[in-house]
Design brief:
5-stranded mixed β-sheet; 170 residues; alpha/beta; 8 helices; 48% helix; Uracil-DNA Glycosylase, subunit E
Length: 170
């Protein structure tokens, strides 16, 4: 699961996350490290675009949190990649950790429990930051390469289950 902060103009218009310029950069970077977009669920902390594309306010984050919490409960992701400060802070707070900021937290793995789900949290920069500051693209790619390593390390235990898999255990 990849979680950003809020939809941009294109995302808000189309009703889909990360389909604008930052989304294209995210997809391109994911593919460069071997992650197919179809392998991950992508969402945002805040579900509607804040006016003038400003950072979401605390009350907006609070109002949208039940939706993200329910997504986590239903999807039970093994890995969550937070894109930027807002998403990183949201997950850190819900797991009882102090958010040090994306620059200090990025690229590391944290084993946490959020909404009753044990998961591996990997914060990284927001693709928009890498879009506006090309020198940060390397950081994004390094972090997503780390995500791919973690995904591959758990491939056997996260293989999709079929009815036959459950019958074999009996």
């Amino acid at each position: 699961m990849f979680v950003g902060e809020a939809p941009g103009a294109t995302e808000d218009e189309l009703g889909r996350p990360f389909v604008g310029a930052a989304g294209r950069l995210l997809t391109m970077t994911m593919e460069a490290v071997g992650i197919r977009r179809s392998e991950v669920y992508i969402t945002n902390v805040v579900k509607c675009r804040p006016p003038n594309n400003r950072e979401p306010r605390d009350e907006e984050i609070k109002a949208c949190s039940p939706f993200l919490e329910r997504q986590i409960e239903l999807l039970r992701p093994r890995i969550v990649v937070t894109l930027g400060n807002v998403a990183g802070k949201w997950f850190f707070e819900r797991s009882g950790l102090k958010w040090p900021g994306v620059t200090k937290a990025r690229g590391k793995t944290y084993h946490v429990k959020v909404c009753g789900v044990e998961l591996i949290l990997i914060p990284t920069i927001h693709p928009a930051a890498a879009l506006y500051n090309p020198s940060m693209r390397t950081l994004l790619q390094e972090d997503l390469r780390r995500v791919k390593e973690v995904m591959e390390a758990g491939t056997s235990e996260t293989k999709p289950k079929t009815l036959l898999d459950f019958v074999k255990r009996s």
